[in-house]
Give the backbone structure.
Amino acid sequence: MSASEDTFSTLCQLLEPFNTAKIGLKPETDISADLNIDSVSVMDFVMEVEDHFNIDIPLNVLSETRSIADLVKVVEGRLAKV
Amino acid sequence: MTDLFDKHRTISERHERMLSLGANAVGLTNDRILSPTRAIIEGRETVLAGTNNYMGITFDPDCIAAGQEALDLYGTGTTGSRIANGSYAQHRELELELAQFLNRKHCIMFTTGYQANLGMLAGLAGPKDTIYLDADSHSSIYDGCTLSGAKLVRFRHNDASDLDKRLARSEDEGGRLVVVEGIYSMLGDRAPLADFVEVKKKHGFQLLVDEAHSFGVLGPNGRGLADEAGLEDDVDFVVGTFSKSIGAIGGFGAGNHPQFNMLRYASRPYMFTASPSPATVATSLAAIRKLKAEPQRRNRLRVNSTRLFDGFKSLGLALGCDSVSPIVAVNCPDEVSTIAMWNALLKAGVYVNIALPPGTPGKQCLLRCSVSAAHTFEDIDRIVSLFGEVVAQGHYRKAV
Ligand SMILES: Cc1ncc(COP(=O)(O)O)c(C=O)c1O
């Protein structure tokens, strides 16, 4: 598995508790709209992601982060900085 | 053409669903207000237990007289911002007296509490700075943070070690501002200020406390949580509102920083909105004087809050937090039962707030009560017994 496939599957695991409708997760899945998750839950999910990878994902970044693939890019960008 | 309202469809569907279950829980009309604790709603005299009217000061004769006099002397409105139209002498008088009350060198009045957070946060922090905000912060804090353009880092609610961890792994270049609230508006819990002050000593940042629900309420001098905790020297900036314990409208920011007044020329929510009206300033100032002169209001509020808290505990209700504050929130099982209970309470003659996700921490469904110093013991006991009746009707099972 490539590093970004790895990150994708980790994000999917972290997203599972928020995915109450049990929708199949793909890289292009829109975290908020497709999973019908409210904005507070998206922030709570991102907190889990921050803690798992021990990185900061400032809230400002989220307005341009829609899909799981977008978030994979953000996480890898942050990991590269550490 | 896309209708701009399309994006609000889920909200409107939810609103329809709520209406189908009874009265309009989020758009109720008080036909008449009889006193700080009584209104006529749907033709019935109703005990108000969701007003944030902590000091019960809205009908105070001295405050009303001060407002009436200001209307006569200065007219109905200021018709512009203080930057453009100048201040009225009263604006200055209020800021001076409030600064004294707060034991701070400087104080700026804003037109609402919401704007006070916008103005303070966007005035203090800019795009090169980082704001660390509690996850359960009020929307006005979130909006102020967004307006500031600062980097925004959210830490777990009331968790100083989580803040510590986030500060440790950050690579901030500019200033760092940490924002917490004195009493959190939904659950009534306090920030563990001493823990945050420890983290402040370790990492170095400036600390802002929004005392919206604790100003006038907590502390030996009624100055809020920092006063209660004996930590005022460690708090750099205080924000508050006049819409709760002061019974008016307006807000403030205060601090000791020598440059504090620069915010008047740097804070857009101060500069580009009309200043508070003369009657509002006058009633607010009269109320501040009352808070100072009549500490018994605070004591009475504490006694009333304890009575409601203990009453609910004895009914076996799950409450929002373990400490007593004027906000006593009952945790309900789900949205439908919460709305049913709210309607049953209103029909029985008591008004409380309904608070549903996503506006609540941890997706809780809450019936939120706020206590007033003007409630009588009979009022409190009636609220408790009506909750008891509604529970007995089977609308409630203890939320797990
Ligand atoms: C914590 C907090 N901050 C700020 C505000 C805003 O105050 P106001 O309603 O007076 O604008 C409120 C209340 O609405 C609040 O609960």
Q: What stands out?
A: The two ends of chain A are 22 Å apart (CA to CA).
